[in-house]
């Protein structure tokens, strides 16, 4: 069969598929809902890993994908429910046909009102059909909206990183470039957003389109708009659906923002958030109660609130700030080229069945020097007594780098104790980043020997 969209045979095929599309809608919605329920928890776990690993790019990707999939899940659930109502209405029509208002024997006032407002049963079925088809299309259009947002931010990050990799600017010049690049780029992105909210307001008139057209073309390319542009304009040329297609995303963001601040307060004085202290134990400091899918690990962790051994394992997760503090303390360790972040590693490459490593081992002496700085950088106290420690580095079950040591607590008494860690902390003064020495965490625990 010819797939020429102007041919009569192709139009007949589309009309036939349109009439039977509800079956495909239900089939796709069912599989999509099942898959989305399966993937939401793993995404949460990946988000916690990204936050814990200080991985900004991966974190941004997950934080963009997660709400997009949440919207898709909610809209598809509503679609399935309404499509079920539609099927039920069709079945009822087969049994009882139209609504007979005379049979109800209501007064003329109510009969006239219901005839006007409710109307015929066929009109109800038709409206349900339109709503279901619109919801099904809008669900996937939301995915493209979030994809466009992610690509806009991603392009900015890509250009910034590429310019930084070329080493054509000094560190100070790179900061200046990033500021100007961000200003111009997001100023143009703001025009795209204004045009989106205004339903094409910058495409109207005589002068505005001439100025806006190059910006529109540029962002059309980087957002891959050719994939979903026909969907957008098909919504915008209808009075009822254009409002839905334009404002469903801002409405979702506004509702999410408002709901994020809504919670139940259990007490006027006691809270369930905050850092551990002498009177509060944050579960992010205790490994036995941390839920990897929902909880963020705090600055440091110990195995449990109750310690029954003569030693206390202490783990401090690695962060970029801690390494910057090492460089601040010993500038000889600062490399000429910062290798942190994403990039191609030519020292280790692999294909199925073959792995090639070329001098991938780091200098052990430099690692020892690095760890020596870490050990001198942090002071560990139990109650008010300084405790000897020697950090090594390792990885946890999620592959995150961390510093680990074991503290001798054989001489401390039974009962409650406070573990203090003192070291460098960030201190932002306007745009100047300073490092100050402060108590970074206080963790209460109870010691009872076996």
TrEMBL record:
Protein name according to UniProt: Uncharacterized protein
Source species, domain of life: Bacteria
Keyword Transmembrane: yes
Membrane-spanning intervals of the chain: 21-40, 60-82, 135-159, 179-202, 214-231, 243-262
Record has Membrane as a keyword: yes
Lineage, highest ranks first: Bacteria, Pseudomonadati, Bacteroidota, Flavobacteriia, Flavobacteriales
Alphabetical keyword list: Membrane, Transmembrane, Transmembrane helix
Organism, scientific name: Croceitalea marina
């Amino acid at each position: 069969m010819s797939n020429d969209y102007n041919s009569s045979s192709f139009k007949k095929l589309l009309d036939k598929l349109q009439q039977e599309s509800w079956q495909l809608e239900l089939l796709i919605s069912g599989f999509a809902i099942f898959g989305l329920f399966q993937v939401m928890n793993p995404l949460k776990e990946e988000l916690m890993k990204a936050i814990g690993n200080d991985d900004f790019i991966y974190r941004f990707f997950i934080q963009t994908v997660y709400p997009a999939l949440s919207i898709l899940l909610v809209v598809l659930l509503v679609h399935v429910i309404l499509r079920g109502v539609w099927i039920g209405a069709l079945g009822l029509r087969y049994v009882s046909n139209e609504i007979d208002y005379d049979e109800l024997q209501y007064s003329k006032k109510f009969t006239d009102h219901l005839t006007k407002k409710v109307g015929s049963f066929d009109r109800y079925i038709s409206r349900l059909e339109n709503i279901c088809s619109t919801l099904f299309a809008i669900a996937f259009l939301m995915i493209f909206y979030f994809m466009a947002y992610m690509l806009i931010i991603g392009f900015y990050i890509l250009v910034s990183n590429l310019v930084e990799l070329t080493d054509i600017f000094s560190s100070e010049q790179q900061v200046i470039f990033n500021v100007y690049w961000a200003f111009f780029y997001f100023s143009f992105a703001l025009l795209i957003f204004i045009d989106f909210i205004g339903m094409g307001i910058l495409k109207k008139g005589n002068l505005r389109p001439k100025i806006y057209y190059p910006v529109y073309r540029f962002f059309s390319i980087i957002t891959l708009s050719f994939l979903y542009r026909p969907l957008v304009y098909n919504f915008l040329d209808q009075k009822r659906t254009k409002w839905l297609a334009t404002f469903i995303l801002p409405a979702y963001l506004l509702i999410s923002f408002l709901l994020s601040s809504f919670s139940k307060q259990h007490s006027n004085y006691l809270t369930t958030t905050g850092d551990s202290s002498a009177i509060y134990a944050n579960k992010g400091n205790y490994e036995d109660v941390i839920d990897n899918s929902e909880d963020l690990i705090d600055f440091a962790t110990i195995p449990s609130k109750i310690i029954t051994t003569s030693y206390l394992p202490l783990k401090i997760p690695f962060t970029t700030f801690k390494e910057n503090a090492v460089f601040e303390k010993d500038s000889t360790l600062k490399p000429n080229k910062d290798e942190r972040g994403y990039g191609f590693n030519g020292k280790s490459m692999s294909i199925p069945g073959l792995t090639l490593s070329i001098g991938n081992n780091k200098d052990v002496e430099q690692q020892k020097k690095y760890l020596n700085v870490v050990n001198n950088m942090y002071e560990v106290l139990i109650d008010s007594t300084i405790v000897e420690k020697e950090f090594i580095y390792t990885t946890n079950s999620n592959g995150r780098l961390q510093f680990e040591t074991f503290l001798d607590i054989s001489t401390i008494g039974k009962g409650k104790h406070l573990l203090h860690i003192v070291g460098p902390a960030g201190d932002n003064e306007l745009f100047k980043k300073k490092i100050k020495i402060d108590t970074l965490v206080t963790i209460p625990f109870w010691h009872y020997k076996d």
